[in-house]
Amino acid sequence: MRRGYLPTYLPTYTHTHAMLLRIPYTAPFTALPPLPSSATTLPAAVTAVANFLAHARSTVVLSGAGISVASGLPDYRGAKGTYTLNKEYRPTFFSEFVHGDRARRRYWARSFLGWRGVEGVRPNRGHDAVARLWRGGWVGGVVTQNVDSLHTAADADLPVTNLHGLLATIVCLTCRTTYPRAAFQLALRTLNPSWAAFLDQLREDPSTPVRRNPDGDIDVPGVEYESFRYPPCKTCLENPAYRGRIPVDNDGAALPSTVRFHSEADTQGHAHVPGVLKPTLVFFGESVLQAVKDEAEARVDAADAILVLGSSLATYSAWRLVRRAREQGKKIGVVNLGGVRGEAEFWSDGGGRVGARYRLGDGRDGVRVEFDVGEVLDGAVEVLLRTDQREKNILAAHA
Ligand SMILES: [Zn+2]
Prior knowledge:
This protein is of the alpha/beta class.
């Protein structure tokens, strides 16, 4: 094991592969040939996507990690849909985070090290193109699986449903107070000077073998996370109702709880200890909030077409939105490198075969292309601004 780059004051342990859990989806999906079948070149793909958008009254965009790759964020899957980036990635599951101080130390340590890679990212031309499509009236709204806030960074007015939450804020599981993640980073830095020194060392030496994950955390093989300290919610600490029930050390960092505290929140399946802070992103093993589900469904229901951008739809909460659109007879478009879950059914004529109107059409009834999201959308916006003279589009061209 390569450990030479680790500062000696960080205790280490041997990585036990047998203990790694797997996240639920790892098998590759088979990619369909392009639709229409003529869309084998970038210009043809651009034209097909432009036709798709031009002939819909309103399209809802469903985006995934693939749209943020050009911003420097990693995708979970490689181009062939396999889980190539980080086979050993073992995410923290919701229940272990909520119930285990140990899991929280591990999570926050990795998140602390990975934060810089997330904080500095900017929207790319894929996000910009989506915003322009909305300004132009072709796109009615966006549902994203990404937790990186980049759609909003591209256009603060763009209607976005963040299906899996956001990384930029943290929330107290007891009192629901939210805090900016950036400020929390400073608190973590203060409580963990040796980790802060390690982080500075990582910045200076980019060749250090670490693995970034799209949720903004980082894997450093061989590190013992137990020494990492994190603070509980300030609001709860000051709440007399919780006096003495939130164990903290002299610096205000959470102490491992040897006693099981049964708070009111506990009966709702939340933390045993009051004041546990969690990022507002949805963890594996955690449910999407009903209000968020409803909003995402309303966006699908309000559109007559759905355009999937940079997602293999491996996550059920995203896939079911496309299934819903299909059940409503809506048009489906996909721009993705690699296969998409169940996509053969999206354009089926009922007999399991892709219908001729999709294969031989011009993209208006359905489109499936395998090119970079930013390139395709950028081109499609240009085509639409030239050719699709909707009244509102003319306004948008000057926005
Ligand atoms: Zn609180």
